[in-house]
């Protein structure tokens, strides 16, 4: 895994972990994780393109 991806997903996971208890029960947290994961994976290629990677 390249450093940009590693830092990017570390930040995404850290924010999601911080927000998790505020989201609610297990089902809403899982749904939030799935949505954030899909969005994060969709944004990463554009972000890497802007950074020249």
From TrEMBL:
Keyword match Membrane: yes
Stretches that traverse the bilayer: 6-23, 30-47
Keyword tags: Membrane, Transmembrane, Transmembrane helix
Name the record gives this protein: Uncharacterized protein
Phylogenetic classification of the source organism: Bacteria, Pseudomonadati, Pseudomonadota, Alphaproteobacteria, Rhodobacterales
């Amino acid at each position: 895994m390249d450093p940009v991806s590693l830092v990017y997903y570390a930040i995404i996971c850290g924010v999601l972990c911080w927000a998790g208890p505020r989201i609610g029960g297990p089902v809403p947290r899982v749904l939030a994780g799935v949505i954030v994961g899909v969005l994060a994976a969709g944004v990463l290629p554009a972000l890497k393109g802007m950074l020249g990677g």
